């Protein structure tokens, strides 16, 4: 699920005292009072009440005088040649104010955040089901939809290429060809072999971000010929630049204002909804609003890459890995989007958080006529985690070694070298995490009494019988990279302003549910001792902060806020230090009070701020990385985060239904900045991972999306959410990260599906090599 808060609401909460006791975090334990403000406090989100009461302003709620409504005509075919487009039927309808096609795009006809290869509107070829053909603005939303349907498009339907393996030999689907990227990773001795060899073929399905709120936006024309777009963008400055290029305008004549984001795990990075909206506003001179239906949302945004993985693991007789060979094929769909970056993560992490002396990985990302793939939390890393953990289970079974013990014999630690040749310099407590979940007490077995039938797989009134239920225990170890990779310049800018005892943070880091606005308030409280802190709304008049992916804003934007706050702190303390003949380093701020090291000086922050206005602007830029070379080698990542999950499942081996009983989680977090928020982030990630493991698969038939709605696409609900036990949070601070903290959301998503699959293997003895797990894969022959 896409919204952390919404997803976590479906999961079993973990009490804060227990988290603090286990993590050794700032609160120290269950009997110790938590800090009231600043880092380490469970500060609630400022917008929590508005969201729960339904008064929070999302883009779908916006209104403007003279508002028109937009609708988009999308292709019903995954691959077709456009012979003609006749818009006259739509233009003649009463209430229709404008119709735009590819001919009406005044600037660049293609756009793309990573690769400029995607047309605003299809002109000659349709490359995927749901590709935009035209857009309409009308006085009423129903009129707009009817007008869009009245546009007559003549197609020559072409045979779609939907099998990524066939894309290599197929006719080019795009002028750039079908191969987006190939990464051959070479590490160690190709001739090395192990005493034991296991092989596996794995398939990962198409998970959709399924945002709790579908895409929406409002475009308002400006007197200078520009346009303002109000939308739930997660990277407003990049969106502004892409939109301006398509409009043929200078970037300063396009302004993107970020509205409330109803959850995002990457799906809101594509400006394909905003560009038609802005074109219609410029054409009509009126505000234009678009509120996508759930079907349009499924058709319009990107999804997780479906992936085919072939693996061969070599190990010695003791179970220690010798060599890993793998082939990884990512289905990018019709356009490149983030496929190159996703492939780099998949190839680099193909061996998992294990020491592997020799690794030979081939990775490809190819275009097909399937729906476009892009950023979804943990992209690349999640797919390979499911595969390499399947291999570890196979090795354990072949060697007769306990699966957890086999993993412990191979775990990565600080100072080890990745198959990319990069040394792991950050904390990597992988063994400690695995031991924590392994040693956590197992849940009790369900009873056979009728009143406990709800414990059976299938839920209340299920058809299963207790005698057909087997319990399985499985493990998953996962890793993700933090921030961008392969030479990407990561930078964020923030301003902290203090006036009348109130602090304001100005930073273009978008709050997508990851808690950045709460963290920014905590940083300023911690640094300046000011309790009342506001975070300004985000728009492109502010300096850029970059996209809300890979935990960037915790590190980069949080680091910029901290630096700006420290500069304001110096401005505040310098007069006092000068007055008492000491340096500012000898003064401290805590609980709203300023004191000196010797106790001579004691005053309050409020008194010293009286009548003053202080401000500072700062940037944060982590150390640079480098692209992977022609052998897949290079220091491509700023940092890494790790997680261990133990899954306990009950499987009805006759029906193939699976119930996740418990997920025990241990995570490498660096430092707990907000215990309550961290628990929500982990629980949300685990729940999203369970969806990928059991239910979430955007199915296609020859490139056509089947059932693009929340009836056909099954998200986990509160009835599916298991007991989530956060058994350990390892707080070993990363010295190069601001506050020493690591992003928390992606790595549980990456690890949970592998753990669930491992547990189903344990229960059934079946290989389980496909996600989501289909019922037939969980059916086994009853024992005895």
From TrEMBL:
<dbReference type="InterPro" id="IPR036856">
    <property type="entry name" value="Ald_Oxase/Xan_DH_a/b_sf"/>
</dbReference>
<dbReference type="InterPro" id="IPR016208">
    <property type="entry name" value="Ald_Oxase/xanthine_DH-like"/>
</dbReference>
<protein>
    <submittedName>
        <fullName>Molybdopterin-dependent oxidoreductase</fullName>
    </submittedName>
</protein>
<dbReference type="InterPro" id="IPR000674">
    <property type="entry name" value="Ald_Oxase/Xan_DH_a/b"/>
</dbReference>
<dbReference type="Pfam" id="PF20256">
    <property type="entry name" value="MoCoBD_2"/>
</dbReference>
<dbReference type="InterPro" id="IPR037165">
    <property type="entry name" value="AldOxase/xan_DH_Mopterin-bd_sf"/>
</dbReference>
<feature type="domain" description="Aldehyde oxidase/xanthine dehydrogenase a/b hammerhead">
    <location>
        <begin position="53"/>
        <end position="159"/>
    </location>
</feature>
<dbReference type="Pfam" id="PF01315">
    <property type="entry name" value="Ald_Xan_dh_C"/>
</dbReference>
<feature type="compositionally biased region" description="Low complexity">
    <location>
        <begin position="1"/>
        <end position="15"/>
    </location>
</feature>
<feature type="region of interest" description="Disordered">
    <location>
        <begin position="1"/>
        <end position="46"/>
    </location>
</feature>
<dbReference type="InterPro" id="IPR046867">
    <property type="entry name" value="AldOxase/xan_DH_MoCoBD2"/>
</dbReference>
<dbReference type="InterPro" id="IPR008274">
    <property type="entry name" value="AldOxase/xan_DH_MoCoBD1"/>
</dbReference>
<dbReference type="Pfam" id="PF02738">
    <property type="entry name" value="MoCoBD_1"/>
</dbReference>
């Amino acid at each position: 699920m896409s919204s952390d808060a919404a997803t976590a609401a479906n999961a079993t909460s973990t009490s804060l005292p227990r988290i603090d006791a286990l993590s050794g975090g700032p609160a120290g334990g269950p009997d110790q009072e938590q800090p009231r403000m600043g880092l380490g406090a469970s500060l609630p989100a400022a917008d929590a009440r508005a969201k729960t009461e339904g008064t929070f302003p999302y883009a779908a709620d916006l209104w403007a005088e003279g508002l028109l409504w937009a609708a988009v005509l999308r292709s019903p075919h995954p691959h077709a040649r456009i012979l003609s487009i006749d818009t006259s039927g739509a233009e003649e309808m009463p209430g229709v104010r404008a119709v735009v096609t590819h001919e009406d795009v005044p600037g660049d006809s293609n756009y793309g955040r990573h690769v400029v290869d995607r047309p605003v509107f299809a002109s000659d070829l349709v490359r995927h089901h749901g590709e935009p053909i035209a857009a309409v603005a009308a006085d009423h939303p129903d009129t707009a939809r009817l007008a869009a349907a009245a546009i007559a498009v003549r197609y020559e339907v072409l045979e779609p290429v939907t099998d990524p393996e066939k894309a290599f030999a197929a006719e080019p689907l795009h002028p750039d060809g079908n191969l987006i990227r190939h990464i051959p990773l070479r590490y160690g001795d190709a001739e090395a072999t192990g005493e034991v060899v296991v092989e596996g073929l794995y398939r990962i399905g198409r998970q959709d971000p399924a945002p709790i709120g579908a895409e929406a936006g409002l475009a308002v024309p400006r007197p200078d010929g520009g346009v303002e777009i109000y939308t739930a963008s997660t990277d407003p400055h990049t969106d502004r630049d892409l939109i301006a290029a398509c409009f043929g305008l200078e970037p300063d004549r396009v302004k993107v204002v970020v509205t409330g984001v109803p959850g995002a795990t990457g799906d809101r990075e594509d400006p394909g909804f905003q560009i038609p909206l802005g074109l219609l506003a410029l054409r009509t001179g009126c505000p234009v609003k678009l509120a996508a239906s759930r079907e349009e949302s499924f058709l319009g945004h990107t999804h997780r890459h479906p992936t085919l993985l072939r693996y061969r693991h070599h190990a010695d007789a003791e179970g220690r890995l010798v060599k890993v060979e793998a082939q990884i094929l990512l289905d990018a769909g019709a356009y490149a989007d983030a496929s190159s970056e996703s492939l780099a993560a998949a190839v680099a992490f193909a061996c998992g958080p294990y020491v592997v002396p020799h690794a030979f990985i081939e990775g490809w990302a190819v275009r097909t006529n399937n729906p476009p793939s892009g950023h979804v939390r943990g992209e690349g890393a999640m797919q390979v985690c499911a595969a390499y953990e399947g291999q570890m289970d196979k090795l354990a079974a072949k060697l007769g070694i306990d699966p957890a013990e086999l993993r412990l014999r191979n775990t990565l630690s600080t100072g080890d070298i990745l198959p990319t040749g990069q040394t792991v310099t950050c904390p990597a407590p992988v063994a400690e995490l695995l031991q924590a979940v392994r040693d956590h007490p197992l849940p009790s077995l369900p009873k056979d009494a009728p009143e406990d039938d709800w414990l059976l797989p299938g839920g209340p009134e299920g058809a299963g019988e207790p005698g057909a239920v087997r319990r399985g225990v499985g493990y998953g170890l996962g890793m993700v990279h933090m921030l961008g990779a392969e030479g990407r310049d990561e930078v964020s800018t923030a301003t902290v302003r203090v006036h009348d005892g109130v602090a304001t943070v100005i930073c273009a880091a978008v709050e997508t549910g990851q808690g950045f606005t709460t963290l920014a308030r905590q940083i300023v409280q911690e640094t300046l001792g000011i309790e009342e802190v506001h975070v300004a709304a985000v728009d492109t008049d502010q300096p850029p902060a970059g996209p809300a992916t890979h935990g960037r804003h915790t590190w980069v934007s949080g680091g910029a806020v901290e630096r700006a706050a420290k500069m304001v702190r110096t401005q505040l303390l310098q007069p006092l230090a000068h007055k008492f003949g000491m340096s500012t380093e000898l003064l401290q701020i805590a609980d709203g009070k300023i004191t000196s090291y010797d106790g001579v000086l004691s005053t309050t922050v409020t008194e010293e701020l009286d009548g003053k206005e202080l401000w500072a602007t700062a940037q944060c830029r982590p150390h640079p990385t480098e692209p992977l070379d022609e052998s897949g080698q290079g220091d491509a990542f700023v940092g890494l985060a790790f997680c261990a999950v133990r899954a306990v499942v009950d499987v009805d081996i006759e029906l193939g239904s699976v119930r996740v009983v418990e997920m025990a989680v241990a995570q490498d977090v660096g430092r707990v900045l907000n215990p309550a928020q961290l628990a929500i982030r982990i629980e949300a990630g685990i729940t999203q991972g369970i969806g990928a493991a059991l239910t979430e698969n955007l199915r296609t038939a020859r490139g056509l999306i089947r059932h693009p709605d929340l009836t056909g696409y099954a998200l986990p609900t509160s009835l599916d959410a298991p007991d989530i036990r956060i058994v350990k949070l390892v707080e070993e601070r990363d010295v190069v990260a601001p506050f020493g903290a690591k992003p928390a959301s992606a790595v549980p998503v990456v690890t949970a599906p592998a753990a669930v699959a491992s547990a189903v293997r344990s229960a059934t003895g079946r290989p389980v090599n496909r996600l989501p797990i289909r019922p037939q894969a969980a059916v086994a022959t009853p024992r005895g």
